[in-house]
Amino acid sequence: MAFENLSERLQKALKNLTGKGKISEADINDASREIRLALLEADVNFKVVKDFIKKIKKEALGKEVQESLNPGQQIIKIVDDELTKMMGEEAVSLNKSQHIPTIIMMVGLQGTGKTTTVGKLANYLMKNEKARPLLIAGDIYRPAAIDQLKQIGQQLNVPVYSEDNQDVAEIVKHGLEEADKNKNDYVLIDTAGRLEIDEQLMDELKRVTAVAHPDNTLLVVDAMTGQAATQVAEGFNNDLDLTGIILTKLDGDTRGGAALSIRAVTGLPIIFTGQGEKLTDLSTFHPDRMASRILG
Ligand code: GDP
C-alpha cells in the first residue's frame, strides 16, 4: 500500500504532541525532525521537505497554536493543510475543448503504463460522461502496443485508429479526420515511449503536438520510480507543454515520494492515479483526501 511507512511515522511523530496539554518549542522541534526524516525516507524531494518543515515550524510556533486549548490537534491540522498544499490543494480536471473532440495526448517513458492508461481513461470518460472516444495508436515502434490498444478497444467497444505508417504525425492527422467523421467527443492518442528522454522522441512528440493541438498533454509516470519521476516530468515539461500528470502504479509504491513532490517540483497537477492493471483501476486525484489518508 502507498504511503504505509510514511503514514506510520508521521502518525507516531504527531501522537507525541496530542497527549500533551502544553507544547514547548522543543516538542515542536522534535516532531519536525521526525517529520523531516519520514518525508526524506519516503523519497520526497529535499527542497520540498525543507520548505515544508519551515512552514510547519513557523505555523506551529505561532501565537494562536501556542495559546489554543488543544495545540497538538492544531499542529496535526497544520501538517494536514501543508501536505494538501504540497500536492496542489484542489483537484484538477481535464481541459475541455469548446468544440468536439477534446483531444488528449498521452506521453511518457516506456513501461510507465501509457497504453493501459489510455484504456483506463477511455473507460472513465465513458462511465462518467457517457463519452464516445476514439483511440489513436501512435506507439508505432512497439507493434505489441498497437495490438494491446486494439484489444483494449475491443474490450471497451471503442474504435481504435491505426495505420501501417512510419510517420506518426500523419497517423494522428488521419485519426483526427476519422474522429471528425464519426463525431467522437474525445480522442485519446497513445504515443511511443523510450527508456529515457532523447531528442528523437521529443521531436516526434512535438510534431504530433503540432498536428493534434491537444487540449490535454498528460505525462504518465510510474510512482514506483520515486524522485526519478519528478526529474522525468521536468524533462518532458521542458519540451512539451504538459497540462498534467497521471501517476501510475500507486498500488506498488510503498514510499509515496513522487505523489508528494511532483506538484511542488514541477508545478504540474496530478489529475489521475492508477492503482492496478485493470481498466477500472483509475481514480481522480484529490490532494486533501490523500493528505488525510496519509495522516490516518
Ligand atoms: P507503456 O509502455 O507506457 O504503454 O506501458 P503499458 O501500458 O504497456 O504498461 C506496462 C505495464 O504496467 C503493464 O504490465 C501494465 O499492466 C502495468 N500497469 C499499468 N498501470 C498500472 C498500475 O496502475 N498498477 C499496476 N500494478 N500496474 C500497472
From TrEMBL:
<feature type="domain" description="AAA+ ATPase">
    <location>
        <begin position="100"/>
        <end position="296"/>
    </location>
</feature>
<keyword id="KW-0547">Nucleotide-binding</keyword>
<feature type="domain" description="SRP54-type proteins GTP-binding">
    <location>
        <begin position="101"/>
        <end position="296"/>
    </location>
</feature>
<keyword id="KW-0733">Signal recognition particle</keyword>
<comment type="similarity">
    <text>Belongs to the GTP-binding SRP family. SRP54 subfamily.</text>
</comment>
<protein>
    <recommendedName>
        <fullName>Signal recognition particle protein</fullName>
        <ecNumber>3.6.5.4</ecNumber>
    </recommendedName>
</protein>
<keyword id="KW-0963">Cytoplasm</keyword>
<feature type="binding site">
    <location>
        <begin position="248"/>
        <end position="251"/>
    </location>
    <ligand>
        <name>GTP</name>
    </ligand>
</feature>
<feature type="binding site">
    <location>
        <begin position="190"/>
        <end position="194"/>
    </location>
    <ligand>
        <name>GTP</name>
    </ligand>
</feature>
<dbReference type="GO" id="GO:0003723">
    <property type="term" value="F:RNA binding"/>
</dbReference>
<keyword id="KW-0687">Ribonucleoprotein</keyword>
<keyword id="KW-0694">RNA-binding</keyword>
<comment type="function">
    <text>Involved in targeting and insertion of nascent membrane proteins into the cytoplasmic membrane. Binds to the hydrophobic signal sequence of the ribosome-nascent chain (RNC) as it emerges from the ribosomes. The SRP-RNC complex is then targeted to the cytoplasmic membrane where it interacts with the SRP receptor FtsY.</text>
</comment>
<dbReference type="GO" id="GO:0003924">
    <property type="term" value="F:GTPase activity"/>
</dbReference>
<dbReference type="GO" id="GO:0005525">
    <property type="term" value="F:GTP binding"/>
</dbReference>
<feature type="binding site">
    <location>
        <begin position="108"/>
        <end position="115"/>
    </location>
    <ligand>
        <name>GTP</name>
    </ligand>
</feature>
<dbReference type="GO" id="GO:0048500">
    <property type="term" value="C:signal recognition particle"/>
</dbReference>
<keyword id="KW-0378">Hydrolase</keyword>
<feature type="domain" description="Signal recognition particle SRP54 helical bundle">
    <location>
        <begin position="2"/>
        <end position="87"/>
    </location>
</feature>
<keyword id="KW-0342">GTP-binding</keyword>
<dbReference type="GO" id="GO:0006612">
    <property type="term" value="P:protein targeting to membrane"/>
</dbReference>
<comment type="subunit">
    <text>Part of the signal recognition particle protein translocation system, which is composed of SRP and FtsY.</text>
</comment>
